[in-house]
Amino acid sequence: MDFSNMNNNCGGGMYAEWSSLPLEGGGRGVLGAVGGRDVVLAVVRQLASHEPSPLNTDAEVEWVLEVIRFGLSLPLHEHEALRDCVRVCCSWLSPLLPPAPPAQPPPPAVPPPVAAAPARYARKILKHLHNLFVPRPNETLTFVYQLELGGDLISKQAVLCHRVLRLARNLAGNANLGASEWRSLLLLLLSAASALLSPPAPHHSAAEQLCERVLCVLFEVWILACHRCFPSPPLWRTLREQCIKWRHRAPLTEQWTRASLCLTARLLKHMYGPLFPAMPISDEDSNLIPADMSAEAVMQSWYRVLHTIGNPVDLCRPHVISQTPDFLQYSITQEDGARDPSQHPCLQALPSIFHKAMKGIAAHVDAFLGRGIEWWVQGFSASSAVLEPPQEEGDLTPPAHRRLAKSFSVSTSKPRDKQPDKSTPRTSLIGLTSRPSSVAPTTPPNSITSQVGEAEKPPLTPLRPKVNSIFHLFGEWLFEAALIGTTPVYNNNQQRADGTPPPPSLSDATFKLNMLSYQPGRAEALGTLCRVLCSKQCREEVLAPYLARCYAAIHRGLRDPATAGAVVLNAADIFRLDLDGVLVLVPDFITALDRILSEREPKLECGSIDKRELRKAAISALLSLVAFPHHYKELPVPEFPGCNEYAGMTLGDFARGKISLICVSAVQVECSDALAVPLLSALYLCVRHNAHVNHGKAMSAPPGSTMSHSTDYKARSDSGSATGSVDQSSLEDFAADVRELDPSSPIFGAALVVRATYLVCHRLISSWKGDLQVSLAALELLSGLAKLHSAKPEFVIEAIERKRAVRWICDYITVQCSRPPQAHSRDLHSCVVAAYSCLASWLCPALLADPDCLATLMEVVELGISGSKSLGKPGEPQKMKDEKELKPVSMRVRDAAESLLMLILEQVGNSSNGSAWCRLDERWLSALGHGRLRHFIADGNILLSLLEEPLANSQEPQPTLIVIIRCGWGRYAWSLSSRGAARCATRGNGAACARPIDMLEPPPKVTPQCLPLPNPPPCAVDSAFPGLEAVLRQLNDPEAPTLFKLLEQQAAIEKRVRESENHIVPEEYMPPEPVTEFQTARLFLSHFGYLNIGGDKKGGPPRLVALDDAQPGFAAALRRVDACGSRTAVTAHVFCARAGQTSAADIVANAHSCDTVSPGFIRMLRGLGAPVRVRSHPGWTGHVDTSYDAHPDCGHAIAPPPVSGEKAPALYDGRDQVLYWSDSTNEIAFVVPSGFETSETEDRQNDSIKSDVDGSCVSTRGSEKAAGSCWDVSSNSSGTTSYERSISESDKGDRGRSSLNEKVRALSLELDKHSTAGLTGSGRRNRDFTTKIMIIWLEDFEDHLNLPVDDLLGYCETGLPWRRHEVTILCVSARRSGLLRLHIAPSSVAGVLADGAQISPLLLPACLRRAALDIARRGRLNTDLYQPPHVRRRHLIQELAQQYKRDLSEPELLESLFRTPS
């Protein structure tokens, strides 16, 4: 079928072989020629009574019908005669209807001939009723000069017409009509509509009041006729020709839209079944299409009704609309003569009618796309503004109980009074103004409610038709409407409707001016085109002619400020769909995004477009474009044929600077917190891609070029206060700085990192500190930028830039913690905890080597632990440690500050990235043949395991001590040896060391000049003190002789020494042989101050507590402590789904071979982490049963697993190997499930508890750790002190009381080390539900709608409790261009990755790791009862101490140290 010819030729197309039917009406008959007014009055008055009819023969009835025929054409001032004629006609047609209860007043009697053959006379009566609708031409002046009289007569005529229309609707719905009767009924409605609607619309005429109602009844009756007696082709052609003549009437477009949309809704049910999204229909229109109407009838009726009004684009051409006999007659009869019919005043409504027509077509398209509910919710923005106001019951004619649902309310106001615009009916357009309670828009479970505020649009149904099919139906109209007002320039050799040529009577300037009023309709058509094009499915191909015409329309639409907003709003996904040649639109799209996002108010004409939705769509488009400068950096800018605007430029050079400036400007001016979150994601991805782009350029730059340009990437606004207010002038500096940068410079990426850091820090304190989601997104972005600051040696940023960023974050923490108590909440504390985690990402040796920066960090740590700083505001005295009241903001904040402090202590003076987990434990020592260890608890939270035997491989006999230290920060091992000298100062066999040799000769011995004094003579005082002998004799001590004998011997020895000391050469003294067996543990504990005899405070807990390792379960308790890592552990399960796969078993089976997965999936796996063997790996492996459990293997060293691309991805299923990545605070295990790991356990659900409610979850695993779970430390086996809540966490009634009232507690990391022997449990219950993270590689992006998530979760066991609503899915789909499209569900927790972002394959692994960390962190922040790893380990150690401690006194403890452990 020639679609364009059918649209442009109303008599051609499907009706070319038939002619239309004449609409001559009822005529006036013989009485009209001779004048029969008196006859009519006499006859009709008698017939209108309820007395029995005097007509008994057919001839009599025929004669009376002629009288009625003339009576229906009487002037309007003969209202009573007209009314009686209508009453008689309605009564005589009643035999066709089912019996009804008697009416009051009684209707006129029906003659017997009419009752006997009602169908025969019905055809004539219906034909005669046409005269009632014909306007009375001789009474026009009466309406003009006698307004009150004219308005009253028009209202009376309208009442009669409404009665006839109700009768026609009743006949169509309830009467048993034949084909002839249906034909007569349809011709009556066509004739009535033609008489009222064909002439140009004068004001205050009957047509103005009846237009909407007659069209409503016409379409309703016509659809009923299609169901019961399908109209013949001549009737369809007549309807089409007449509708084309009525297109200057606004209700025609509205009723056409209403009828065709109802048919469309029924058609979709027949075509696609119940699974296709149903288009909601209002209760009033639900019965418009009969329920039992056949599918064939619906299909034929839908297509014919859809094309009833011809080409809707003609509505923007007044010279075409006015080419009708009625308009030509108007132009001839004007006083000035030969007036242009296209200048009639009624045609000024064409722009609004055209806009409504385009909205109707858009509604049809949305229904086919499965988006009918969106059209229902949005409605027509203009329709609600022109609705008729409600009227009182007394003003309604006819009464309410006699009106149909579509009855028209006749107003009794004067014609000169301003009437409400009735261009839109109360019930038209399927309830656009109100939505029934039974129809509610559905929101997908994974909507971005916290990211964009409102519910997201549901995804398009996969059952939707192809793009080509929709373009076959509506493309010609949409393409032509999208190009109106433009000049065709693309193909001069072929006549095409690429533009709208001006009529001959108008100049180009006048034509362009007139076309401005049609831009809303054009924008609607452009938006519809974009929605159709963006509905393309993954492997669908769009015909090249359609693509070319779409690109031409979009290109012109983007360059027009009146339509650019509609294009961006509806084409946000255009660059995600693998469309051929779509890059030609990139320059215009970037320009449009700049106009929308760079300022708070878009520099476009938005019209009825919601500015918030426009910005949201622009941000979505920006996310799809951020990778283009990097990915297409060497591609010349594509242009349309004949254009030479970007000659010699590459897409990278053109877009890099512009997109960077848009991202920075948008973040700078965005005032909506919800929209700031995806903007921050766009900024992060933009910075990451630019940093990667400049990485290659920096390598080719001269040495030192980055540092030589260090001043180029310093922002000008670096002197502002972090806590001060922000004015507009300071905000402008960030965009201005980026605008001045040279995108081709090798330091552009470094400069952009600095400016992005400044901007985000600035807005974080000034604007975003009150919103949780934006604050988290900003802090996550800063954490990602911290990695860029020190990622590569050639990407060096000066230390002062990092210091400034750290200072901003510290100020943010200070500001948040300093807010009044009533402002504290869980969200506020979550922001502070996230800020501490962000600071941990910025730690590096250069920062910690700076005294000022280190002091700032320590102040913030002190604030988090104690709740205040020692150095207060200026003028306040310093507070010493023992003077401060210990009152942290919250326990979560205190835990986060402790973690930061430990990281600082680990990294100060250490160039490595923290200490690694020690693999040595008791099992390894036992495998080496060593004996038992001594176990002690030091300071209440440090577990010391001491081995007093030397190592087996030691070649020296020095006494050696092995110390295994377990604390909240990990497990460490020390080896200590007791030596008499350094290792190098040995001689012989190493038993002793030589004496040092004097370097100089000793000086000669000097003779003393002074001789000793002689003994003094005895005196009386000497006799006052008895001698020793006298005392002993007086005491009669039996041991006295022995003592005297010893004294004599000693005196003799000393005498010999004095006599011989001047004659004997002194010998060199030799040190004794070192002792190899003694209590090294005792010495170690003594040296570290744990054996301070009598030094412990009375009543306080002892610093050292011995443990009884002989009790059963002690080894399992140690394993529980070791099984709790010191870093946060994250597990991500990776899948690959081939196109069309919906079975979990099939998806998992793809990992068994490299042939069943794409090469991109293999490359992604290689970048996610390093392969490690589960048996020998000391860290997290993805499951609690195998993590932190490196088995001793003394026979041979375990080689690292080889990296080979030929092995199947299922190798990393967690049984033998996993992919592992870690930093100082996090560790991630990437597991590729194979299905074999789940078959080893009969009941997988015992390993992991899925819970939908908060509460403790107890694991029932049958492994060695079954005695208790390190992830749920709220068991009743032991007890320690509980954390006391701060004022912000306690009940409001307890705010006046101090939660920490014991002044004896010292300011340290251990607030809970005082004795609480009577308490059990760990204090804060650990409700640590882990977040399930699945990374799914999709060959077909549309498959994300049908993923068997619940089934795949069965392959994602980690042994930890989890909840279904905390499952996050990261879908990655490769585009043909090489970019990767991301889909996150739910997208509100993805951190720096926003849903719909497109990134480079080189950045995918790093971005996925960052997203996994952010998702897990947000899951932990969702509850204030989460326990960090160091707190969990500390509680486990305290529980172990309570359960296995030995009740020894201090002497018994010291005595035990002298004994060998048995």
Rg (C-alpha, Å): 47 Å
Question: Span between N and C termini?
Answer: 100 Å
Major beta sheet, strand line-up: 7-8-9-6-10-11-12-13
Largest sheet: 8 strands, mixed
Number of strands: 13
Shape: elongated
By secondary-structure content and strand pairing, the structural class works out as mainly alpha
Q: How many helix segments?
A: 51
Rounded mean pLDDT score: 77
**Helix proportion of residues, in percent?**
40-55%
Q: What is the strand content? A: 5-15%
Low-confidence stretches: 1-11, 140-149, 379-455, 489-499, 695-732, 792-796, 1241-1326
Can you offer a commentary on this structure?
The radius of gyration is 47 Å and the shape is elongated. With 1462 residues, the chain is mainly α. It has 51 helices and 13 strands. α11 (179-197) runs parallel beside α13, α27 runs parallel beside α30 and α38 (851-866) runs antiparallel to α39 (891-907).
